Amino acid sequence: RHTRFRGVTGVQTCALPICFPVTISRLVDGARTWIGVDMALKRDTTAAVLVQNQDGVLVTRAKIWLPDGGVLDVAAVESWLREMAQLYDVQEIAYDPAFFQRTAEALAEDGFPMVEFPQSPQRMVPACGHLYEMIVNQRLAYDGNPLFSDQVLSAAQRVKDNGWTLSKGKSKRKIDAVIALAMAVDRATTTPADEPTPGFFVV
Predict the structure, then answer these.
(1) ∠ CA 101-48-135 to the nearest 5 degrees?
(2) Rg (CA), the chain
(3) Residue 16's pLDDT is what?
(4) Which pTM does this prediction carry?
């Protein structure tokens, strides 16, 4: 069963069912940062979302790649992640192993803190619920990126026996950015405040 993820309308992106505020806050160079990656190889977009905790508000930014001729340049995604690691203190890069395992292993070999985050109901039900809580409590903000907005508003709730996850619903519009957002928010708010450990982990 599907219900729309979005709710009231307004000048801000609204979902779950209240507003996801637009903020002029910037990501801080060198600050602790979590990244979620939702990868596709054909037709779908690929998205990565960065999350920083700034005074209790999770400031987010999204990078969304469109497939060129129906095929995504995986090397471009890897290159961007390496650039982000130069700008920010990346604590974890959470990713769905589908289509990204080989790249993740290469990054782990180079010391990146890679966290395998399967998009199973066991992982996504709590992650989506946690994302809901962050939005309801007005603890999530972004920069008004229209493509990011569209993907957030395109998501639908898919009800499971033990809760709900996010899906495209009947619209079949792209939602990769909101999936990456859920992964990054989950890790940013549940990871102990220790130094990042290089390597490859499964959660």
Answers:
(1) 125
(2) 16
(3) 41
(4) 0.82
Q: 131: part of which helix (H) or strand (E)? A: helix 121-136
Residues 122 and 163: their CA atoms lie apart, in Å, by 10
The whole-number pLDDT of residue 40 equals 81
pLDDT of amino acid 109: 94
**What distance in Å separates the CA atoms of residue 36 and residue 148, rounded to the nearest whole number?**
14
Beta-carbon contacts of 163 under 8 Å, excluding residues fewer than 6 positions away, are: 121, 125, 126, 128, 129
Give the whole-angstrom CA distance, residue 40 versus residue 47.
Answer: 9
Bridge partners of 166? 157
What is the C-alpha separation between 42 and 70, in angstroms, rounded?
A: 5
CA distance 168 to 48: 18
CA 133 from chain centre, in angstroms, equals 15
Residue 54: closest CA among 80, 30, 86: 30
State the CB neighbour count (10 A cutoff) for residue 51.
Answer: 28
Dist. CA 203–CA 195, nearest whole Å? 17
Q: What separation, in Å, do the N-terminal and C-terminal C-alpha atoms of the chain show? A: 27
Ranges in the chain, pLDDT < 50: 1-18, 200
